[in-house]
Amino acid sequence: MTARQQVQIEMFRHYLGALGGESLGAQEVSADPVGQARRLFDGGVRKVVFTGPVRLDEPGSRAALDLLRELAAWGVRCEWRASGRPPAWQAFSHLPPPNGGADLDPWRAAYFPAKCVFREGPGFVQIRDRRSGSLECYTVDEFELIAAVRRLAAGADPDACDPAATALFAEHGLLVRAGGLRWWAPARLRRWPVPAMVV
């Protein structure tokens, strides 16, 4: 079992301005980042600062990446730094861009909310992925694949999931491979990022 990268986060009730400086305290990224993101949002947290860098090429960083993905899906502002940035940064381009220099400008320019998401309907899962620059839409309706999506989205280790399902998701870039990292990219769609009449 891979050791989880220890990353601390500081929490704030407001996004910007003077009120944004009022810290609500700090905690570590938990072993249940999906549940942690919901608890933070329900507790009124609207900005989170990752106080240490998050590696983009190590299996131990999966929980921190899960938390980033889920916080963004809840609309929580995230400030973080990346280390070990792989050449294929586009695989992570649906995450809020990390702080850094001009080399991250393409990531900042390409980012928008809900870039890689999934939603579940009766007997199917629909995945919408725009990381490549064009919309790729997948409808999953096989029981085994739906079960794998649910497990991966809940933070399960890909090695503990159905190998045929993870191989299929990896083939389509939905299960990101970077260095030793294997990570589920799509976020569960929590809310439309634009007014409903625009969609």
Overview of the structural elements:
The relative contact order is 0.15. The protein is α/β, with parallel strands linked by helices and 199 residues long. The chain is 25% helix and 25% strand.
Any chance you could write out the topology, listing elements then pairs?
Blueprint: E1 8-12, E2 23-28, H1 33-42, E3 47-50, E4 54-55, H2 62-74, E5 77-79, E6 82-83, H3 105-110, E7 116-121, E8 124-129, E9 136-140, H4 143-153, H5 163-171, E10 175-178, E11 181-184, E12 187-188
Parallel strand pairs: 3-5, 4-6, 7-12
Antiparallel strand pairs: 1-2, 1-3, 7-8, 8-9, 10-11
Identify low-pLDDT runs. Answer: none
Structural class: alpha/beta
Largest sheet: 4 strands, mixed
Distance between the termini: 42 Å
Please count the beta strands (DSSP E, at least 2 residues each): 12
Question: Mean pLDDT, rounded to whole units?
Answer: 89
Query: Helical element count?
Result: 5
The H-and-E topology, N to C, reads as EEHEEHEEHEEEHHEEE
Whole-number radius of gyration?
16 Å
Apparent shape? globular
Strand content: 15-25%
Largest sheet, order of strands side by side? 2-1-3-5
Helix content: 10-25%
